[in-house]
């Protein structure tokens, strides 16, 4: 164990899984930077972490824009310290059957998830390499295994797994681990939007989805935050290049 206060960056932290992860890492004793397109939301979650006695900074950044990524990471380094934990969580869905899917919807989903994780990782790994310590967690999904209406998202989330394994190989020599978490059905704005798109009441939709989940309930953002907490912990340094399905059972 070390006494160093680690600095974490969580993307897409204004709500949902990212917000729960930022809260959990702050409760674990890390200083946390919350990046999101939604600046007000990121600042609001950061303020609630500070009110609870944690250290947090909310920042606006589009993770698919290299200049914004570079500026945001520089600000985190100067205000909180060198970031050595990165959770690539920000994401979007633009679901449609492939014959109706537009090029814009394909490009946006691939860009936010894959280009976003790439740009963030490229920027933050400099600090990890210098510190000779780092933890990267990339959000994949059970949709990586295939999911009707999500050709773009499934491709992006399968891509996250290959990206994770490759950076685990490249950065391992610097004592940096990289792992993916592939959540199943988690109750957030993202799954609420899916229910809306299908014209379904969210609670009914979630109850129906829960019937196919072995533990018999939808996941909560805190379920994913707990797994992130483990993967970024000091003791998890020999776990790298893995994909952990956090789905209440063995498959989607
Ligand atoms: P969410 O509630 O929709 O939150 C995603 C956050 O990411 C939003 O605050 C969004 O901001 C932000 N974001 C989107 N594009 C961004 C960009 N270019 N730059 C910075 N921030 C951006 O989603 P969630 O359900 O918590 O999901 C979090 C992650 O887990 C995603 O990667 C998702 O694919 C993955 N996941 C979720 C589930 C699930 O069941 N919920 C299952 C498997 C995997 P705006 O609102 O301003 O767009």
UniProtKB/TrEMBL annotation:
GO terms for biological process: monocarboxylic acid metabolic process. GO terms for molecular function: oxidoreductase activity. Its EC number is 1.1.1.-. It comes from the Bacteria. InterPro entries: KR_dom (IPR057326), NAD(P)-bd_dom_sf (IPR036291), Sc_DH/Rdtase_CS (IPR020904), SDR (IPR050259), SDR_fam (IPR002347). Keywords: NADP, Oxidoreductase. Residues 6-174 form the Ketoreductase domain. Belongs to the short-chain dehydrogenases/reductases (SDR) family. This is Short-chain reductase protein NovJ.
């Amino acid at each position: 164990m070390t006494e160093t206060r680690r600095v974490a960056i969580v993307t897409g932290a204004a709500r949902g899984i990212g917000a729960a992860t930022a809260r959990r890492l702050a409760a674990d004793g890390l200083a946390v930077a919350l990046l999101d397109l939604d600046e007000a939301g990121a600042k609001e979650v950061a303020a609630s972490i500070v009110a609870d006695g944690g250290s947090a900074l909310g920042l606006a950044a589009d993770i698919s824009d290299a200049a914004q990524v570079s500026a945001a990471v520089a600000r985190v380094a100067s205000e909180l310290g060198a970031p050595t934990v990165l959770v690539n969580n920000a994401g979007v869905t633009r679901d449609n059957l492939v014959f109706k899917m537009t090029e814009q919807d394909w490009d946006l989903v691939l860009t936010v998830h894959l280009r976003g994780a790439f740009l963030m990782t490229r920027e933050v790994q400099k600090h990890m390499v210098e510190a000779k310590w780092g933890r990267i967690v990339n959000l994949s999904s059970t949709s990586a295994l295939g999911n009707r209406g999500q050709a773009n998202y499934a491709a992006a989330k399968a891509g996250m797994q290959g990206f994770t394994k490759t950076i685990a190989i490249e950065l391992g020599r610097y004592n940096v681990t990289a792992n993916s978490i592939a959540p199943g059905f988690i109750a957030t704005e993202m799954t609420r939007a899916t229910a809306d798109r299908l014209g379904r009441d969210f609670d009914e939709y979630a109850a129906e989805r829960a019937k196919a989940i072995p533990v018999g309930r939808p996941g909560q953002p805190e379920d994913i935050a707990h797994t992130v907490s483990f993967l970024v912990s000091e003791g998890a340094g020999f776990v790298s290049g893995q994909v952990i399905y956090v789905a209440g059972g063995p498959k989607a």
